[in-house]
Design a protein that fits this description.
The chain has 231 residues and is an all-alpha fold. It contains eight helices and two strands, in the order H-H-H-H-H-H-H-E-E-H. The protein has one domain: Four Helix Bundle (Hemerythrin (Met), subunit A) (Up-down Bundle).
């Protein structure tokens, strides 16, 4: 079907105010993800399997809401400045809060949490510098794998207790398996950080070379032509 040409006389839709951006549906989903954090922490329990299971389900629901708010923002054309700020903030708050709490109760080693959280802070800062330089650091395959393994690992850690696999005599220690999965996420985390850093250095150097070439071309264009040699 041919697209209908837009009517130039039709006024453009009014841009939302910051207050309206905060209260649109995608950003409300993001805010709900942030609001779920204290409930996840309150449910994490090393003495009550049912509470731990609820903690896992709530953590998964909050994590998967990231895909929901992104879909809503794109499908309803509600991509906003507030959303661009809140979405990555909510993701990092959810993961870092749970990791820090698990360090407190002895479920995760402190060095592991510090490394994972430090990596997030470093890459966030690197992306900010890249934006100021007019560069974009897109998510790599390593980064996407890091996110998947990290969320799966933390979900298993929140379950914490061993459970028998349905219909078998195999017992799965969810805490131990979750810890190993988080270790795998750490490997992807470090590799993705190195990839982002090298990409930034290469892109920044290419930009510098283009600027130097442009300046040299401008100088040559502005310089007077060479005088012919005297006879």
């Amino acid at each position: 079907m041919d697209r209908v040409a837009s009517d130039p006389s039709k006024p453009k839709p009014r841009r939302q105010t910051i207050k309206e951006e905060f209260t649109n549906l995608p950003n409300l989903v993001t805010l709900a993800r942030i609001a779920a954090i204290p409930f996840v922490l309150a449910l994490i329990d090393d003495s009550d399997p049912l509470r731990s299971l609820f903690a896992c389900l709530l953590f998964l629901a909050a994590s998967l809401s990231d895909a929901l708010d992104g879909y809503l923002a794109r499908s309803r054309n509600l991509i906003t400045v507030v959303g661009k700020f809140l979405d990555p903030l909510a993701d990092k708050l959810l993961v870092t809060s749970v990791l820090i709490y698990m360090v407190r109760i002895g479920w995760v080693q402190d060095w592991l949490a510090v490394t994972l959280i430090g990596r997030e802070i470093a890459i966030t800062g690197l992306r900010g510098i890249a934006v100021s330089e007019g560069l974009v650091i897109a998510a790599s395959t390593f980064g996407k794998n890091k996110t998947v393994f990290q969320l799966v690992g933390i979900s298993f850690l929140t379950i914490h207790f061993p459970y028998r696999l349905l219909g078998t005599q195999i017992v799965i220690d969810f805490h131990l398996v979750g810890l190993y999965v988080v270790y795998i996420s750490l490997v992807f985390s470090l590799f993705s950080a190195l990839h982002y850093f090298l990409f930034f250095l290469e892109a920044a150097e290419q930009k510098r070379l283009r600027q130097v070439a442009a300046e040299e071309a401008a100088e040559q264009a502005g310089s007077p032509p060479d005088e012919p040699p005297a006879s």
